[in-house]
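This section describes the prediction task in plain terms. A model, or a person checking by hand, is given the sequence of a single protein chain and must write out its three-dimensional structure as a string of tokens. No templates, partner chains or ligands are provided. The sample shown here is typical of the held-out split.
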Amino acid sequence: MNEFDGASPERLSPDRASRQDNRVYLSCVKRSVRLAAVLESPHLMAALVQDTCLRIAVGDWFGRLPSRRHPRARARWAAEGAFLRREEQRLTDVTDQVLAETPEARPEEY
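The expected answer:
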């Protein structure tokens, strides 16, 4: 009897052709790119990681909106939001440049 009960390692391994068609979404540029291109390009991988970290930071920041009764805390919160917007713009510029230099990524706009 097969130790895997019909689930051979060949069936469990990802199909190379389907992996070529998978895409990941970069919210900073509002485009999806081929997963294979991200795995092959250290610059695209870094952009994906930074984009993910930025999305998490924005979600965390938004969830910490202070009460109007605390104007200093609200001013610090607004300054942090301005910083996150600048970081998003910087990441957008860098990612646009990386995508322009990586034709195999073939981005698709949403």
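For orientation: Helices lie at 9-12, 16-21, 35-40, 42-63, 71-101.
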